[in-house]
Amino acid sequence: MSFAPPPATAAWLHQEARSGFEVSFFTSRGGGFVLEGCTTAVEEGITWAVEYTVEVDHDWRTSRARVAHRTAAGTRATELRADGDGHWLVDGHRAPHLDGCLDVDLESSAMTNTLPVHRVDPRPGVATAAPAACVRAVDLSVERLEQTYVRVADEGDRVRFDYHAPAFDFACRLVYDSSALVLSYPGIATRAA
Question: Which domain of life is it from (predicted)?
Answer without folding.
Answer: Bacteria
